What does this fold into?
Amino acid sequence: MTRIVLALLLALACLCFVALGVGEYAVSWREVFAVLTKRTAAQDALVVLDLRLPRVLLALGVGAALAVAGTVTQAVLRNPLAEPGLLGINGGAALASVIFIAATGGAATQYLPLAGFAGATAMAVAIYALSWRASTSSLRIIFMGIGLGALAGATVTIVIAFAEIRDVQRALIWLAGSIYHADWTVVRVLTLWLILPFLLILASARELDLMSLGDHPARSLGLRVDHARAWAILMCTALAGAAVSAAGTIGFVGLIAPHLARRLVGPRHLHLVPVAALIGAALVLTADLIGRTVLAPVQFPAGLVTALIGAPFFGYLLWGRRHAAA
It folds into this structure.
């Protein structure tokens, strides 16, 4: 476990150095190191500290949040193909954000993350309440999440169809999932918001392990399943809602990272959660790096790159489960 974490941290540090140096204005790794130790020219410091470093840190935070949210979702729903979008969280955040953009005409954009998080929270509460029948079940939550997520997607399409062209363009960029707008304010707010949910999820690792076994085994071992499931969904909403609010809808990270982490450290969530967070951070940072360098100066949103990676990975998982079932 320790060796794996150290290896991932080293790989992530190297990736950060590459992301800080690569771009239209190239900065060598020596110059990047000099900037970080405050021994360099003002121009290099402007590019690295004010433009690229907030973008790198936002990618790390968003990726870690989505990965941990995906890990929790797979434990709660006992479904290896689940991710936060299956709970309708992404759909709720997208709907609230698009309505906010259309209603304000792009003004007061500093409140867009708040609108997105409010939408994610409202969707999670609605799904849990509507799936309650004396208690909850993973299957009812999945069906309700799929249904309400589809309803939110259809409503987003309707709002976009009647909005102003300028607002439509802004909404579509946000929906694609991008961190090009990163600044230090967004990074600070996201960091402060994520600390508590991360710690609470780590503290709830045993409960997540028990929920992964199924409702009946978990109850026989003394777990109050309904309360634990509601608590886990709340933490998942806090993480995924904050990530979506800060960077838009970046898909498949919550699906890929837990599977890769499980291959490395096994199913115990005390080990799985931090490793998945590191892998998710690396995935989003890599996606953003590819998106802004492959066809520079044209920039592709990170969400499009993760979709190109995640769709084949999803197919691979389906194919593997098909042979396992056979």
Q: What stands out?
A: The two ends are 33 Å apart (CA to CA).
